[in-house]
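User: My collaborator sent over this chain with a note saying "see what the structure looks like." That's all I know about it. Can you take a look?
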Amino acid sequence: MIVGTVKEIKDHEFRVGLTPAGCHALVGAGHTVVVEKGAGEGSGFSDDSYVAAGAKLGLRKEVFDQSDMIVKVKEPLKAEYDLFHQGQILFTYLHLAPEPELTAALLNKQVIGIAYETIRDAKNTLPLLSPMSRVAGRMAVQIGAQYLEKQYGGKGIVLGGVPGTESAQVVILGGGTVGLNAAKMAVGLGARVAVLDMDPERLAYLDDIFGGRVETIVSNPYVLAQWVKKADLFVSCILIPGAMTPKLVTEAMVKTMEPGSVIIDVAIDQGGAVETIDRVTTHSDPVYVKYGVVHYAVANIPGAASRTSTIALTNSTLPYALSIANKGWKQALTEDPGLAKGLNTAFGKVTFKAVADALDLSFTSVDEILRDY
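Assistant: Without extra context I'll predict from the sequence alone. Here is the result:
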């Protein structure tokens, strides 16, 4: 198979779909790897390092034209829609539920869209979402600490305070991978930390690992409203894989927050859980203020920590990329039901139920695709 990777064009997105080590593994398995010139520079990987790993270099259109499978990081943007060809495999984060135009483009081109974020492993966890969730959770607190500074519109406070002052109150909605990693950073910086989640068992786990240093709260609308009001930094970590995130934090709740408080919605690429976040922001223009509260809604937070993120992501995606390349996508999905859950589009059909529901499109099951197409 010819496998290609291209330079990401999303605002301030410096990650790349394959490291030189990943290229070396694919070439060693008998495949051809074509890399767009300069694709890895943002992550600290030179063109020479890819050539040394056995890859070929090409211009952007050449990579798309030649490749049977494109391995990316972020969802394609409009400038890339016309570069795909019929039957091409796209292996990347897709987040299609809030993206009707992208979904239509993939269906029109009959792209085989395999989404990192909906693949499951044998433990029913999300192995390709987890590494970036760890990065995003940790970075969310770093970013929040910065925007709490007065020159960025914040309250002018330090997360951990100093002797004689109160430390900041960090409230984390969602105790999954993102929330866990956000809590680690916030506790490490000396903040007062509360994690809200609907699952008492998950909260019990968090209570155990943090040794009581984190307040664990069973979430419901009434309790959530109380904690939103208390938050100096509120980090929303709610995600339903492949689906639109429900709006749990209402406009009325945000209005109760003190001026200079900060909200960071990590799952904004799936629509976000905060009602007052009505647009996706970018690394070059990351925040806006509404009701006196600083809102941060960047959809590719890990892109700013590109080298760490690229290596962590490729460590997880490479085994799946090798399986698809070695066996062909149909055989790979047939043999691995967890990988099959990553199929979002094929032959002009939507093959992930949550995406079809979100966009009011007809749904075709993966089993039907593998059996009949």
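A starting point for your reply to your collaborator: The longest strand covers residues 192-197.
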